[in-house]
Amino acid sequence: MRPITFRESGRYTKATTGREGSGEMRVRDVGVEAGHLIRLAGELHDLGVDSVVRLPPHHEPAMEIPLYDPGSRLRVTAVRRGRTWMFIWGRSRRRRVPTSTPEAAQRVVAAAQAARAAHEARLAATAETVRVARAAEVLSDRDDVSGAPGVRVLWRAR
């Protein structure tokens, strides 16, 4: 079910359902979420990290940090858990930090750097696999001069 959007006392708010089965509605203030994200974007700018704050009309505001490809990015949202506003960039408890924490920007930067490092490690492993595959070559019986009679060598590393 799509959330109901309405105006209340001059501030843009969004009504969403509460916990499943509770029947309660909670009102989410999109302006506060966007404010936290814009503040974080400013702190990231001071640290020299590129970021974009997106305010789509029918979805939650989010900040995106470009990673390694044009299509890959770290997506950070601001959500309220109880009475505490938090920045969240994943599903784990280790991937969230309260917005009031002074080192929140450094934690988000560390997460982006870890994602970049993991991608570079995957690329290096793939490049090594390709290098090994290219180094291996199939030898025919007539090319195999080092094999003993009756032994067939299927590949040789260069």
Q: Segments where pLDDT lies below 50 for 5+ residues?
A: 1-13, 20-25, 137-142
Question: With helices defined by DSSP (H or I, 4 residues minimum), what is the helix count?
Answer: 2
Based on helices, strands and strand pairing, what is the structural class? alpha+beta
In helices, the fraction of residues equals 25-40%
Order of strands in the sheet with the most strands? 4-5-6-7-8
Mean pLDDT: 77
Number of strands: 10
How much of the sequence lies in strands comes to 25-35%
Order of secondary-structure elements: EEEHEEEEEHEE
Over all CA atoms, what is the radius of gyration? 26 Å
Count of separate structural domains: 1
What does this structure look like?
Residues 1-24 are annotated as: Disordered. The protein is α+β, with helices and mostly antiparallel strands and 158 residues long. It has one domain. The protein has two helices and ten strands; from the N terminus they run βββαβββββαββ. The chain has a five-stranded antiparallel sheet. A three-stranded antiparallel sheet has the order 1-2-3. Strands 9-10 form a two-stranded antiparallel ribbon. Mean pLDDT is 77; it is low at 1-13, 20-25 and 137-142.
